[in-house]
DNA sequence: CGATCTTACGGGATTCGTAAACATA
DNA sequence: TATGTTTACGAATCCCGTAAGATCG
């Protein structure tokens, strides 16, 4: 009673070749086996599909009517299978990722280009969000992986990679710190600072470092976006503290970047996924290439 | 390597119920068998479709992407099967028939109404043509059955029914013959006749009858269409000879119909199909109902 | 009589169900 | 521990190929 794709393929082959023998050889099948398949199909459908004698094979009117319908159905089905196989071997698919704006503007675009060059049919769905939101998106499975900051140990989250991003001081070319190789915590406590808003992972690290160091920063400005912070620094409003990878400070001739001489100025970063969830093959290769960048070798 | 509809149904059932056990009972299958089906499907596609542990079953991103595609393909395929079954049991389909204009305007419309009442989803493809063309259409399989006139014995044609149509004289109410019950061959030879054109089956019979009777008709007019012949008769141009079933003469108060007292004035009619061709089930029931009318009992 | 479809039958692969093992909340 | 999935295995079924039979041109 169950319709079988093989029987449909047999029907189409016989209809196209007009012969059981030729169709059988096309299907790499013995001719009697083909007879049985056609008969079975005719029985399940309850209608004679071919008028045949030992000399000629011809579609019945019903068969002629059914042929294009079955051809289309079979074609669609096979196309879905091809699509599915492409998803399965990672030659197509969509990488769904949430990441911090810093990465969304720095490593991620370059990596996407790299992946697209290797896998032309790869698609991307990128969300940029602050650390807490990234984690939520992963937990709710709105994305498959997240590149986020902050330490997290959650039973529902797998950490595929944990590392840290060096924080650096960003200052105008004419600033007093520009003549030094490095700056210290007390240096930073002595000048006005432009710090990103509460709730960002960078701000959490900076606040923690000052607290444990026993001193308080002088906050000149609390912008939400890094781009704003950079503009404020360029305008001489103060010094800001950003991840070394921040795209915003590159190719800015009026700015200087100096490492901070303090162990606490490391922003932890993590590549995460939901525990127990299989990543799509395309995403697995994406992760592999991302890890190659984050931790080469 | 062959995609199986059963596995697709299994995939959809598990995706919808979120449980192997519930899906198995819906599919009337043991639960282990379902596990095997899903694993087989995952192997043929080459991708994990469900993330599952002993407690939870959830679609992978790839599975979620594939689900609607496979649902649609399966639905289409099953719909085609339903259509095919409907064709197979005669509850739908198209009756392709060619017939003489006489029948196309008389028995056929009534029969079509009758069949449509019995089989609402029946469709019709009707060609009206003179006898020779009807036979050609059947031979070329442009129609499945033909209702035609004339005797034919052809190896390629099966005669499903053979009968004859009485020919009658049609004349104006004021004509001299109107006072008689019947007319004879010599009567017809004595008055101007309106005869349908050469090539029609009626004309062939009339010509044959006059020839064998040893007399010649006086032809006043040779219209192609019966409707024209009737109009000519109504105008007093002469008497015409038509099949008794001709629709054109019914409900014409100014005309009279008289039987012709001569055995040769019978037009043979035949219901034919191409030899070796199976008729669609809907057409078989149509034929049965037609025969019931042509030869009741 | 020759080419082609159909039927018959034995072997092999597929698939099912039962039972036991395994895993996780 | 209890629920639910996976593994193992024997039995039934399905399906193919070979060989013999039937049929039409």
Automatic annotation (TrEMBL), chains A, B:
Any single GO CC term annotated in Swiss-Prot or TrEMBL for this entry: cytosol
Alphabetized UniProt keyword annotations: DNA-binding, Transcription, Transcription regulation
Protein name: HTH-type transcriptional regulator GltC
One MF term in the entry's GO annotations: DNA-binding transcription factor activity
Gene it is expressed from: gltC_2
Entry-linked InterPro entries: HTH-type_LysR_regulators (IPR050950), LysR_HTH_N (IPR000847), LysR_subst-bd (IPR005119), WH-like_DNA-bd_sf (IPR036388), WH_DNA-bd_sf (IPR036390)
Stretches assigned to coiled coil: none
Residue ranges constituting the HTH lysR-type domain according to the UniProt record: 3-60
Pfam family, one: HTH_1
Keyword match Signal: no
Record bears the keyword Transcription regulation: yes
PROSITE patterns for this protein: HTH_LYSR (PS50931)
UniProt record similarity statement: Belongs to the LysR transcriptional regulatory family.
